[in-house]
Fold:
Amino acid sequence: MVLLLGPWRELLFGVESVLVKIALVDSGIGLLAAAAAIRRARPDADLVVSGDPDGMPWGPRTPGDIAERALACARAAVEYRPEALVVACNTATVHALARLRAEFEPGLPVIGTVPAIKPAAATGGVVAIWATSRTTGSAYQRGLIAEFGGAARVHEVACPGLAEAVERADGAAIAAAVASAAARTPAGTTDVVLGCTHYELIDDRIAAALPGQVRLHGSAGAIAAQTLRRLAPGTPPGGGTLTVLHSGRPAVLPPEALAYPQGALLTAAARV
Structure:
């Protein structure tokens, strides 16, 4: 079966038969949440996960540096000929999505990560957005609140050190950062937006730290659905494999990834 996916793909790869192969980019293991959601929806999809342990964390870097590192990870992943490219990182989406789309689209769909503010605010309750210190208070996040916050009362809660603790699978540091963010979450909060992909790996611990029946809203499910919608119609199944890249080098998932159910799910059919 021959699929023509635009001039960029024909120029780079030529006309060829393709399988379901999806690449995901992040600085570290935050991409596990979206990758696992895609794996659950399409167990046959071949996944390429491209992280940047040499350059992480991306958050403290300048916007230009973040964009360059995200582009490097994406270019390494594109060598494996994916059918879609997912920017599974809120920070990289803010600073690199436009450049990634300019380089790869229309031949290769590029899907970004947007905090789930709209569904969280839909009921008009009290919403807290947990995010990294750099994202909290940013023009990007404030714009999303203005656009999608509706009648909800939306509060921003910075979570310093939480993404880094999740990356290290450091249980004590995770507990301390979650407890700090929970203490600064306004009383009466009805919905919490997990505004960093790393946080979805510990959603059970976040839920346990919040009083009452607080609803958590992540992005992984929406990312998976949007990615699958962007695939070319009739794309044949893949083999359900996993390719791991670390700063462009073939690798395996780090031991820390296996501390989370999403990492264990992905390693079921891993290869390099």
Summary: The chain is about 40% helix and 15% strand.
